[in-house]
Protein 1
Amino acid sequence: MKEMFVKEMSVKESSVFNSLSITPLLKLKNRIVLAPLYYEWEFGSRAFMKFFETRAKGGIAMAVVPICIGPHELNNLSGADRENFIAKSRSFIELMHSYDCKVLPQVFSGVGEDVNQLSLEQLNTLPDAFAGASRLLYEAGYDGIDIHGAHHSLFMSLISPAINQRQDRFGGSEANRFQLPLNTIKAIHAAIKDFPIFYRFSAVDFINQGFDIEQGVRFAKALCDAGVSCIDVSAGGTHLSPLYSDAPGEEAGEACFAIYSSAIKQAVPIPVMVAGRINLLSTAEEIVDNFHADLLAIGRALVRNPDWIEEIQENQAACL
């Protein structure tokens, strides 16, 4: 009996299962987040609801859920379409909240390949479009917004010196390349002051003369100053990056992006989330305990097994 008590206490005391306050309005019960996963399910369909419910029931603290339309489309929903989206969202959020699981919709910033073709006028519409989309998401009851500015997104291509070849005020200098994402954060804050904003970007793009970790740290600091609540760190995945660099295989090793999140974590006072082959509790604990990141975005492990959290807890207890 005494031995069992010690094991149970040790599992509970794991740093991975400590709560974390992102903002005064957003508190997570543990450090495990379901990473954004793009499937071809219809939003609110039975398959969609079942997938996310089983992961919420399994103990995740939050799910980052891709909304497969961009900010302009969300902003322009009206009439029955708007009512249907809000109704489906509220039903989904209520279900997830019943398991004490927060829901963060991920909104795509646009296609990266378009970065040098879009007009200045088209780019200038994005901050207001994101602000409008955020108002709708806030009205629907979501716990915040995750801006997809990583991988093949428009915002990632904008900040990459190797990809962005624009000759206007959004190209050239680092300040110019950072300007549109930062304007977007400020526009959301102006529209909804207390809406938590997560921002996902690739800390490096693995391109010669491209976006490196030094630039990534400076960008993270700028995002923090603009009002972002959490930095969501990934890597690679642009249309010029090596294939599958954003979804590394086993050869990359455990926690392969933690080296990048660690550099950012040391530079900003806000929480940092990281993805990239986190499969073991020992890996997760090393990331949290050594201040490489505060939150763990788990993808493939939770896809394979909705009860992954319970399994790693049982495995830990068995090793004590």
Protein 2
Amino acid sequence: MQKASVLLIEDDYNLREYLLYCLSEEFEVSEASDGHEGWKKCLSDFPNLVVSDVRMPGIDGVELCKKIKSDTRTKHIPVILLTGLDGEEQQLLGLGVGANDYVIKPVNSQILALKIKNLLLQQDVYKDACQRHISYSPLNAEPDSQYQEFVNELLKTVEENISNYNFSVEELSQKLFVSRTTLYSRILALTSKTPLDFIKSCRIKKAAQLLQKKTLNVSEICYKVGFRNRKYFAKTFKEEYGVIPSKYIESLEGSNRENDGGSETFKPEQDF
């Protein structure tokens, strides 16, 4: 199982090496010695989580956190700040600009590791919710979710272009007014899929909905959801649902017969 990536930003060499040693067993840890370097690594590596000292020369931890949380490319990344015992004001400033948590120095590595795990678990829970609800209905996200507006707009845009087999990741990013890099990082964080795989998955989920309605045959549905090769459609559908479209229909009809004894009214082509 791949370890979660954590970016550790700390200008104190000894503390940075100590935390690197303590955290590396459970996480894939990269390091930066100041805020400038840390910000560059946020943009290049897109870590799952950032741990940053507050008091650093140049860009301090609070300013860095503000940059992370105000940039569409990185705002989804949780941030833990390391503060001194007398850093109550810094803690308030950090939380005020979006820091997810803080740890007081001297740092207890076990507490830090647990806080990292808890934040990553929250991310995974939300990611699972997204994957369950991304099925061509508005996302039932929490009202205060920082992702809700983005996900709803994402789903709406893909839905509007579902029949366009030429619809590309580039076009999706343009319609959402974000760069391809931002689109990639946001969709990957939410669904564990690349934008291309996400679009393909949405097409297949839409196809499953149309199959359930039983108003179109498999070939018609294939074209309606943006596929131009019927065998590739069947292969992709099986990767998502475990069966080819015709078998999926049979399973639905079998379920209906068990429930109400209904007769078969929808005939799929047998080679799908």
